[in-house]
Amino acid sequence: MKALCYNSVKDLRVENVPDPEIISPKDMIVRVTLSSVCGSDLHIINGFIPTVKAGDVLGHEFMGGVVETGRDVKKFVKGDRVVVASVIACGECHYCNQQSYSLCDNTNPNAYLPEKMFGDTLAGIYGYTHAFGGYAGSHAQYIRVPFADNGAFKVPEGLQDDSVIFCSDAFPTGYMAADMANIKPGSVVAVWGAGGVGQMAMQSAWLLGAERVIAIDREAYRLRVAKEKSKAETLNFTEVEVLEALKDLTGGRGPDCCIDAVGMESSGTGIGYAYDKAKQWARMENDRPLVLRDAIMACRKGGTVSIVGVYSGFADKIPMGAAMNKALTFKMGQMHGPKYIPRLLDHVQNGDVDPSFLVTHKMGLHQGQQGYDMFTLKEDNCMRVVFDPQKSLQHG
Amino acid sequence: MATIKIRSSEFIDRGVIKPLPTGSSYMNVGSTERIVSAAAGLALMYFGLRKFSMPGLLAGAAGAALFERGASGYCPVNNLVQRGPAKKSVETAEITKSLTINKPRTEVYQYWRKLENLPTFMQHLESVSQTDERRSHWVAPVPGGVGKISWDAEIVEEVENEKLSWRSVLNAAVDNSGEVLFKDAPGDQGTEIYVIIKYLPPAGAIGSTVAKLFNPAFKQMLKEDLRRFKRLMEIGEIPVSEAQPSGKKLAFGDTTHDKIEQAYESPLL
């Protein structure tokens, strides 16, 4: 089959790779119909997350049709249309029992790597480096889905692929961001990053009862989408002083809930940005935590900072003084997919949220590099490039 | 050789049990002789194994034996003819690890207590067979696939569902002892297991240094073994990601199918 593989930093190639096979009785094989790029892929492609190897198949946000099931798979049969959580969870360990699926003890074959990097093992994630298990990703015609009964979900009749694909990762991530943000009646929620996850966080904030939602980004078109699709007030940080503007917008209090949907490669302005950019370029700092700093400084006293943007290592100049003295609550993590996906599919089916507006570009795998370039450079008002791996059949 | 008495009353507290210095940790070759043996052994191995022929292999094997004699300071021939300097005591190396398994204590204990199960998660063991109520025979392949080592062990204390301790009996390839404790984890999180393994470095005083160097690796090995145990208990399998599609160029004759076969070789799938 064809698959989009990492070759070296900012160099992706379509390769002929062997078809996946059932390895464990709990596996199933899915023929991928849609597989999305994700901002977190960029950290890998740009060389900031170690343990990626040439030949690794990328992609973790996908859906498709079941073509083969292992003998212990109970929930699915050949032909079922499924969306699959990007995080691979066993369903049996203590963490899975607590629905903290991304903390699964058992699905990472390379547990010793996160143990060294982070002090403990973490769940495997499709196509997301060997530290996260070394599982083959979804930018391929077929993918092996381990622990299928726990990670895959049947797509309700009548829903379009475009509306469902983001229930794999962006929607549960955004929803978890809002869920962790401690939203109460009257809460003002600020979301940094108006990409796929940020938009889903904004819409989830409404679902969870937010009073107001404020989007912060530098891309005018993304802020336009935030206003039109996610009903947010918008701030462009290249035009206004964000901390001041957030105070001015909230009666001088600041937002109750601050969501970082950007992570380690955030952009900014001024000297801080130049400092972090230089350190990161020299690989002296993995993470460029501009958004996190702003979120901490902007957050109202006693408020909550919820982090779903990805950080991989060490970050400098985190204003702990502000966090401590303002008594902030920090909540963060990779999303616990299977906890949220059923209710998100319900929301999509009920018409509460339709994430299909995020699909701005559809391509074949052979356009993989081009797709990621477009996504990185935010060309042509790109929100998300989504690959149709079957489309590449017609091309070399 | 004197008979060693094993009294289980000695082993009340955790980690009290110690391996008996009877096997390869016992030195009966003098220092100069050891250096000469090791050097000659290395030379024989080098020249023997350069040529892939029967005489070459024999020379290589003889070299390996000589080298081991030099490195370990133990010569079975000397032992037989009662030759050699007085024994030296060596430092006991110890590794400990603990892990929480989300299963009831009885289930976890019973799986471990059936010693035949141990190679399903202890990657460096080939087999364990229980020879009588207390004794068992352990076989491990030598890394690199050039033979096997084996030893006998004896259970010195057993408290059902709580504790199991053992130690290797006379003339073990590696003198070792160990203890596994099984405790209920707080807050309904299953079972905590605590493993303490002690061994006498096979290479005597030199070995103590080597053991210090390698102890972190052994510790990691034990950790990985326990992790496999946990996964086996919790999900009935040990997940793999290697045997699957990748764009990396495969070596000649190497196919994904072969890799899957290898994954299947694990007795757990």
UniProtKB/TrEMBL annotation, chain A:
InterPro entries named among the record's database cross-references: ADH-like_C, ADH-like_N, ADH_Zn_CS, GroES-like_sf, NAD(P)-bd_dom_sf
Keywords linked to the UniProt accession: Metal-binding, Oxidoreductase, Zinc
Domain Alcohol dehydrogenase-like C-terminal: 196-265
Membrane-spanning parts: none
Residue span(s) of domain Alcohol dehydrogenase-like N-terminal: 25-156
Gene3D superfamilies tied to this protein: Medium-chain alcohol dehydrogenases, catalytic domain (3.90.180.10), NAD(P)-binding Rossmann-like Domain (3.40.50.720)
Presence of the UniProt keyword Lyase in the record: no
Cofactor: Zn(2+)
SUPFAM superfamilies: GroES-like, NAD(P)-binding Rossmann-fold domains
Molecular function GO terms recorded: oxidoreductase activity; zinc ion binding
Family designation: Belongs to the zinc-containing alcohol dehydrogenase family.
Identification of the protein by name: Threonine dehydrogenase
Natural source organism: Dyadobacter soli
Lineage: Bacteria, Pseudomonadati, Bacteroidota, Cytophagia, Cytophagales
From TrEMBL, chain B:
InterPro entries: COQ10_START, ORF3, START-like_dom_sf, YgaP-like_TM
Domain Coenzyme Q-binding protein COQ10 START, residue spans: 101-221
CDD domains, per the entry: SRPBCC_8
SUPFAM superfamilies assigned: Bet v1-like
Annotated ranges, domain Inner membrane protein YgaP-like transmembrane: 27-81
Family: Belongs to the ribosome association toxin RatA family.
Protein name in the entry: Uncharacterized membrane protein
